[in-house]
Amino acid sequence: MKLKHSLLITASTLLVLMSASSHAGRTGVNSFYGLGLGAAVLPDADAAPTGEVIIGIEEDGWALEGIAFASTEVGTDVSTVDTSISGKEIGLGYRSIEKNHRYYKFKVSKTDLDIETKTTSGTTTFSNTTTTEGNSYTVGMGFRMDRDARLEVDYVYHNNDDLTDPVHFLMFRYLWGGAPYQGTSL
């Protein structure tokens, strides 16, 4: 069994076991949306500032999320080559029960990445786009900002078959909507 299959089975098992402490009975189905800002570390390149748009639906801690992301163009190990990344992912995530306005998040996603490489030779620029597919795994921590607003700090590991090295993201996501806070005060 390949490493990615082992990780997928382990993550799925972990998500199922966590349902024992789910939000059952606390909230119904809710939708949410948000924006993210962070950095992507591409193979053989500098960290690229990255932005994303998030939409999702959730119930009792489980969420189905769709994300579209894109980065700025950054330099690589070769001075005449610049690269950028864009793509989309859809995934199943779990958010633990909030305690002290905090919660934890785990997510497994199917991801499509487009890595654009631009090579400059004199005054001519050549562009090449590589499209890959793979899985991404997210771990994070969330903070309740308001009754219907949350801030999440996520680390995302993208494992794609066509890339020699994985792509890493560190993202700050601000979400509106979703399950309202059930506590006594904020």
Taking the sheet with the most strands, its summary is: 8 strands, antiparallel, barrel
Number of strands: 9
Shape: globular
Count of separate DSSP helical elements: 1
Strand order of the largest sheet: 1-2-3-5-6-7-8-9
Helix amount? under 10%
Explain what this protein looks like in three dimensions.
The chain has 186 residues and is mainly β. The chain has one domain (3-177): Porin (Beta Barrel). 9% of the residues lie in helices and 63% in strands. It contains 1 helix and 9 strands. Strands 1-2-3-5-6-7-8-9 form an 8-stranded antiparallel beta barrel. The radius of gyration is 18 Å and the shape is globular. The model has no long low-confidence stretch (mean pLDDT 83).
Primary descriptors:
mainly beta; 9 strands; 63% strand; 186 residues
Sum this structure up briefly.
With 186 residues, this protein is mainly beta.
Question: What's the topology here?
Answer:
Elements (H helix, E strand, L loop, with lengths): L2 H16 L11 E12 L5 E13 L2 E10 L2 E2 L5 E15 L6 E20 L2 E23 L2 E12 L6 E11 L9
Antiparallel strand pairs: 1-2, 1-9, 2-3, 3-5, 4-5, 5-6, 6-7, 7-8, 8-9
